[in-house]
Design a protein that fits this description.
With about 180 residues, the protein is α+β, with helices and mostly antiparallel strands. It has one domain: Roll (Nuclear Transport Factor 2, Chain: A). The chain contains 7 helices and 5 strands, in the order ααααααβββββα. The chain has a 5-stranded antiparallel beta sheet with strand order 1-2-3-4-5. β4 and β5 form a beta hairpin. α1 packs antiparallel against α2 and α4 packs across α7. The radius of gyration is 17 Å and the shape is globular.
Amino acid sequence: MSLDSQLAHDASTPDGLVKAVVHDVMDTIKGDASLQGDRSKISAMMDQKIWPYVDLQRTMRLCVGSHWLVATPDQRHYIVEQFKKLLIERYADDLAQMRDQRADYKPLRATPDATDVVVESQMVGNRRSVSVAYRVAKTANGWRVYDLSTGAVWVVATYQRIFAEQMSRNGILGLIGFLRD
């Protein structure tokens, strides 16, 4: 089944979306050894297979807090693009080394009318297991991931602290400088 047909079938649920995207990414990486160590190929793969299912605007609103409201549209766009680059740097090596892992999922605990849920999984392989959780929200475009936790460390909470320090010194321009550098 192609990813498009799998997503059309599974994207109606948050865990279906996560499973379909993770499965597609894992299959791609396992099937293409040239991705290992090649950040430009990893970045291109993420553009195609991950970012369309991530709500980076929401992620950044949560990370930046009230400063998001005073940022101009151009500043917001720049912050989101730089944050994508930061995440690629952070996760590219982990993705490239994904060879013998498998993803096991815990049953989804959510009411049928829930619009914000956590999808929990375990990445198992190489004689170790890592908890990975995804915060997923229902949007006008369907379910979208907006936060990720590996080993109980959430991306949003981590960057809220880091970004708050930068913005306390020089506001949104301080954050832009931090992300640029």
